[in-house]
Design brief:
Low-confidence stretches: none
Largest sheet: 7 strands, mixed
Strand content: 15-25%
Mean pLDDT: 88
Shape: extended
Helix content: 25-40%
Distance between the termini: 117 Å
Order of helices and strands: HEHEHEHHEEHEEEEEHHEHEHH
Radius of gyration: 34 Å
């Protein structure tokens, strides 16, 4: 029986078959070709992508907006941390903002600082105690005046543009009002809900012009408006170096706006759809009594010992 002949295998000079050598060369050429195609395709894609992006408008959040300076007076009380938390998380939705939290105290409170850090809004935490002469009076006290004037001093020293707004921590705010006030040239105004027996404090607009004010208490004021109902340009404030808030209960807003004179009614910008909408409310938080002392003998080794540090005592 004849056996099948073995195929002749030719070896090259290094002892490797010519077929294997040819296969490796072909594979190498294929890899190079695919790599070349891949690199070329990637380059074309990147060029087209860059061209596409160059034709797109900047996203809204990439546009640099005028800064807002929110001045919030505060003081130690059972509701303090709750109210700062509520306001802080509202302000967190507003871009390019600095929150000036100013406490009526001789030194800062670590609990307040911790709360502000946790919220994450850019802030400055300052103190401005009420002068002793007003603390001792038996009449109504001018609360928040030293705090707000301290905020004005800060802006005169640290800001040249933007808009300032007095935002009390016990109010409620629609974030749209912050975007509207941001472009104030001198002074802007709008209605505030839940104020006095009228239910609203507002400029009166007739045929697009400011002709007066609607408020439950006029009291001889030229500007009978609520603290939450106006904003002022920082540049305009610099042009009025003597402008400040008076230590006169009930007349703080009026006194400050008067100190910005000369200010013509025609220069006051009317926001909130020409004062047809209410975007801020003077809600106020229910007053709470100081917390009762904790029985440390019974609860000293529980979580209540940690919570106890957050409560305001008599």
């Amino acid at each position: 029986m004849l056996l099948p002949q073995a195929k002749e295998v030719k070896l090259n000079g290094s002892g490797v078959s010519n077929n294997n050598s040819n296969n490796k060369m072909a594979l190498g050429k294929s890899i190079k070709m695919y790599l070349t195609i891949f690199v070329a395709t990637t380059c074309v894609y990147m060029v087209l992508y860059q061209y596409h992006m160059s034709r797109q408008p900047l996203a809204t959040n990439e546009v640099i907006k005028p800064p807002l300076y929110i001045i919030t007076p505060t003081y130690r009380r059972p509701e303090q941390l709750a109210e700062l938390t509520r306001l802080g998380y509202t302000l967190k939705h507003v871009v390019n903002l600095l929150w000036l939290v100013i406490e009526d105290a001789n030194r800062t409170n670590p609990l307040v600082a911790h709360t502000l850090d946790r919220i994450g809004v850019p802030y400055e935490y300052l103190v401005a105690p009420m002068p002793e002469q007003y603390k001792l009076t038996k009449r109504a006290k001018p609360r928040g005046v030293s705090n707000r004037n301290r905020g004005l001093d800060y802006l005169r020293a640290n800001a040249t543009e933007g808009v300032l707004y007095f935002a009390d921590d016990d109010n409620t705010y629609d974030i749209n009002i912050f975007e509207q006030m941001r472009y104030t040239k001198k002074v802007s105004m709008w209605p505030v809900g839940l104020v006095t027996k009228t239910g609203v404090s507002s400029p009166i607009i007739r045929e697009g012009k400011l002709e007066g004010y609607y408020d439950g208490w006029i009291g001889g004021r030229k500007y009978p408006v609520d603290m939450a109902g106006f904003a002022v340009s920082v540049k305009f404030l610099h042009e009025r170096p003597q402008a400040k808030m008076p230590f006169k209960p009930g007349y703080e807003e009026d006194g400050f706006l008067r100190s910005l004179a000369p200010l013509d009614n025609a220069e006051i910008e009317l926001l909130a759809d020409e004062c047809r909408e209410i975007l801020t409310w003077h809600t106020q938080t229910k007053k709470n009594s100081p917390a009762l002392p904790l029985n440390m003998t019974r609860y000293g080794h529980t979580n209540l010992a940690f919570i106890e540090k957050l409560l305001v005592r008599p």
